Amino acid sequence: MTEYIDLETPLNDSIIEKLKAGDKVRISGVLYTARDAAHKRLIEMIETGKYLPFDLKGQLLYYVGPTPAKPGQVIGSAGPTTSYRMDTYAPTLIKMGLKGTIGKGGRSKEVIEAMKRHKAVYFAVVGGAAALIAKTIKNVEIIAFEDLGTEAIRRIEVDNFPAIVLNDVNGGDLYNLGREQFKLPL
After folding, report:
1. CA nearest 25: which of 185, 166, 161, 169?
2. What angle do CA 62, 175, 34 make, to 5 degrees?
3. Average pLDDT over residues 158-163
4. Active site includes 118?
5. Residue 95 belongs to what H/E stretch?
6. Which candidate, 111, 59, 117, places its Cα nearest to that of 83?
7. What H or E segment, with its residue span, contains residue 124?
8. CA 91, CA 110: separation in Å to the nearest integer?
9. What digits encode the pLDDT tens for the residues 130-146?
10. What does the pLDDT read at residue 129?
11. 163 three-state secondary structure
């Protein structure tokens, strides 16, 4: 049986410091969604001294562009977007208090260093499970950049959203751990 760590957002340093690469978690509370175009606008707002549409401190950003909801649903399929596309922007947001990101694929050295320095983590979600992930989302509200369509920033409420810690604050990397586990002797 798989053991999960239950997390309630927003997160703080003491919670983040306990998480290790490979930990399986279930997240409940509020997540915010954002992809490439929204990240670019957030950084422009920061650079020009404008207020952001939500407070980054303790929050998690889910890299997703959900499909439209079918009748009776709050959201359509909500599978993760490839995270490295946000790597240019992530260090700035992490420095400002963002405690984690959720997506798929690896992260750049710069993002990993920012996570270590500012105590944040990267959670991975299985890409093929978009419809199942959507079932953990209980409420959705567009809070910024509605003109971006699926890339608008949304405030979503989740219950037992499943994820795996891919990168932790100590530099632990689940991808590297997996490679080492299956390394063949020469």
Report:
1. 161
2. 15
3. 94
4. no
5. helix 90-95
6. 111
7. strand 121-124
8. 7
9. 777 888 899 999 999 99
10. 73
11. strand
| CB 172 within 8 Å of CB 124 | no
The mean pLDDT value for 109-138 works out to 90
Whole-number pLDDT of residue 185: 59
Q: Strand pairing of 24-33 and 5-8?
A: parallel
Where do the domains of the chain lie, and which CATH numbers do they carry?
5-181 (3.20.130.10)
- The β-bridge relationship of strands 60-62 and 5-8 is unpaired
Name the catalytic one among 35, 39, 41, 118: 39
- What does the angle CA 152 – CA 33 – CA 126 come to, to the nearest 5 degrees? 125
- Which whole number is the average pLDDT over 45-71? 94
Per-residue pLDDT tens digits for 164-177: 999 999 998 887 76
Question: Do β-strands 24-33 and 60-62 pair in parallel, antiparallel, or remain unpaired?
Answer: parallel
Residue with tokens 């703080």: 12
